[in-house]
Amino acid sequence: MSRSDTAFLFDLDGTLVDSVYQHVLAWKEALDKEGVELSVWRIHRKIGMSGGLFANILLRETGLEITEERLARLRQWHAEAYNRQASQGSVRPLPGARELLAFLTEQKIPWAIATSGRMQTAAHNLEALGVDPSKVPVVTRDQVRHAKPDPDLFITAAHRLDCDIHKALVIGDSIWDMLAAQRARSLGIGLLSGGYGQEELERSGAFRVYEDPADLLWHIDEVVARS
């Protein structure tokens, strides 16, 4: 795939920003506040999918009644808990994230960010990365009908770049990113920086797996042709 034909569509949490476990703890706090007892590891396994779908599945697993009011409370409490952690400086770019984005910009390779998070929580991450949503296409959960594992976020991001989604590379850290990439008929690249294992990502459709953004940048010639 030539560089001129390639676009990079990035997930945000766990892919460019080291924020997965802050989200896990924020969801844990929200669920505890709602009186929902759930182990932290079960929460982590759902991180990366749509927040609404995430909450629905967790409540279904616990056998509790699912209401719009309860889901709204959980989303709000999660956002408050996450933003509190982020404001304390615990959310930072992953190794090589800024350098990878700078390289793509320098090489005139288009890129965008597509996150299942809402702008209410994504804003801290974008600020940590130094990404200005007014200058770079950023698609959040607020802007699409369905989030991951549905492909809407990545399809919308490709559209904003005016590129063919079938020639785009989807970079993510979760199986939900890889499933969404498959549904969009894009190639998926997995990163281990969100806590999922290599075999899990490959089984979900990743055609290459790297440790983090720095590792991907080091091996960039494996996914795009040299100019």
Could you describe the 3D structure shown?
With 227 residues, the protein is of the alpha/beta class. The protein has two domains: 3-19 and 92-222, Rossmann fold (3-Layer(aba) Sandwich), CATH 3.40.50.1000; 20-87, DNA polymerase, domain 1, CATH 1.10.150.240. Helices cover 45% and strands 13% of the residues. It is built from ten helices and eight strands. The strands form two sheets. Strands 5-4-1-6-7-8 form a six-stranded parallel beta sheet, with helices on both faces. One of its GO terms (molecular function) is sugar-phosphatase activity. Keywords: Hydrolase. InterPro entries: HAD-like_sf, HAD-like_SPP, HAD-SF_hydro_IA, HAD_sf, PGP-like_dom2.
CATH architecture of the largest domain: 3-Layer(aba) Sandwich
If you compute it from the alpha carbons, what radius of gyration comes out, rounded to the nearest whole angstrom? 17 Å
CATH class label of the largest domain: Alpha Beta
Q: Report the biggest beta sheet as strand number plus sense, adding barrel if it closes.
A: 6 strands, parallel
Helical content, roughly? Answer: 40-55%
CATH superfamily of the largest domain: HAD superfamily/HAD-like
Number of domains: 2
Strand segment tally: 8
In terms of per-residue confidence, which ranges show pLDDT below 50 for 5 or more consecutive residues? none
Which class do the helix and strand fractions yield? alpha/beta
CATH topology assignment of the largest domain: Rossmann fold
β-strand amount:
5-15%
Protein name: HAD family hydrolase
GO molecular function: sugar-phosphatase activity
Keywords: Hydrolase
Pfam family, one: Hydrolase
